[in-house]
């Protein structure tokens, strides 16, 4: 009997030949297997990979619904090969009239860094535009960190919005779709392209890609269709700050709207507080820092206190992923004591055991109503780890008092991981990836 490893080593063409001998019932089961396809084009082998994927397309193309394309081995020498391979594959894909895609992802292309040559970039962008113009059933598009120039980005948005996808597209990820230096809302072409989307219910976008008239147009065009807006704040706030009044207009026009805010370390260094106005009324806040960019205590503490004071009645989810920072215990507890509607808390940071005990007490005293708690605490001494394990049991009991069932997912002895109500699920499962966000 063949081992799993031997099957993994078989070339794609051999697998296709084997599948051709399967009974009809088993072949029918493959329909579900080939609905999703992730293609990774690798350096100088990109064209060979494209040819293999074309063979799969011929056999299973009718079942394909979700397509994800990425690249590895990117360099000045390979970008031409990658662009040509992508063009070859997409050209064959577009010839198929029986392929109906509902999701396309081109995540983390980072053209700003790896694609310096205009001709190969243009070939890639042209291929993508042709693909998007052909779509009739597309519901999800993920362009996170593609890092396009202003003209390239506008071409992509126009290809999506001008044709059928403009009326079918529901989920749109645009975080870092433009190069770092690009401020797109200064260009009328970008504004017109963004206004063409008629069915968006989930939008993930940088704060610096928005301005007041864009939000007003979204409110007017989408109305009750818009359910989720995730705003990414990073770097320095450029241009006008969206006023509380405009956010209130957006909420009035979009009654089901929920707002999540992602704040990255670069924003902490440049003071994001002016953007966090009262009318924004956020339900979820995610703060992330990296080890090479560590925020100062006063910056991070100021953010936590501002969020706790400004959104005390609306905040439902909080996630802190801080790889390197000084103590934030007092500021975190201030927020938790103010935000009585908080139901989901995820912490990956340095905390004192006493702070964890305080969280347990708040839950026991019903000053917190957490249904999901994920803690990963680092930098503890052996004695503190033992104390933490004692607190762990108390936390489980406290959350079980609020929800009948809990499940545990332990990684190691220094972690309290994922104490979660077993019946609860995130409302949205469409996320890409973006630092494993807890989407509302």
Description:
With 440 residues, this protein is α/β, with parallel strands linked by helices. It has one domain: Alpha-Beta Horseshoe (Leucine-rich repeat, LRR (right-handed beta-alpha superhelix)). The chain is 41% helix and 17% strand. The chain is built from 17 helices and 14 strands. It has a 14-stranded mixed beta sheet. Helix 15 (329-338) links the parallel strand 10 and strand 11 (344-349). Residues 404-440 have low confidence and may be disordered. This is F-box domain-containing protein. It comes from Sinanodonta woodiana (Chinese pond mussel). InterPro entries: LRR_dom_sf. Residues 421-440 are annotated as: Disordered.
What is the topology?
Blueprint: H1 4-9, H2 12-19, H3 24-33, E1 36-42, H4 46-60, E2 66-72, H5 79-95, E3 103-105, H6 111-114, H7 118-134, E4 140-142, H8 150-161, H9 165-168, E5 171-173, H10 188-194, E6 202-206, H11 212-222, E7 228-233, H12 244-253, E8 258-264, H13 265-268, E9 284-289, H14 297-310, E10 317-322, H15 329-338, E11 344-349, H16 353-364, E12 372-377, H17 382-402, E13 406-407, E14 415-421
Parallel strand pairs: 1-2, 2-3, 3-4, 4-5, 5-6, 6-7, 7-8, 8-9, 9-10, 10-11, 11-12
Antiparallel strand pairs: 12-14, 13-14
Helix pairs in contact: 4-5, 5-7, 7-8, 8-10, 11-12, 14-15, 15-16, 16-17
Biased composition (Basic and acidic residues): 421-430
InterPro entries: LRR_dom_sf
Protein name: F-box domain-containing protein
Distance between the termini: 46 Å
Oligomeric state of this protein: single chain
Alpha plus pi helix count: 17
Strand content: 15-25%
Mean pLDDT: 84
- Count structural domains: 1
Helix content: 40-55%
Find the count of extended strands (DSSP E, 2+ residues).
14
Low-confidence regions: 404-440
CATH superfamily: Ribonuclease Inhibitor
Our Rg estimate from Cα atoms comes to 24 Å
**Helix and strand composition category:** alpha/beta
CATH architecture: Alpha-Beta Horseshoe
Largest β sheet strand count, sense and barrel closure: 14 strands, mixed
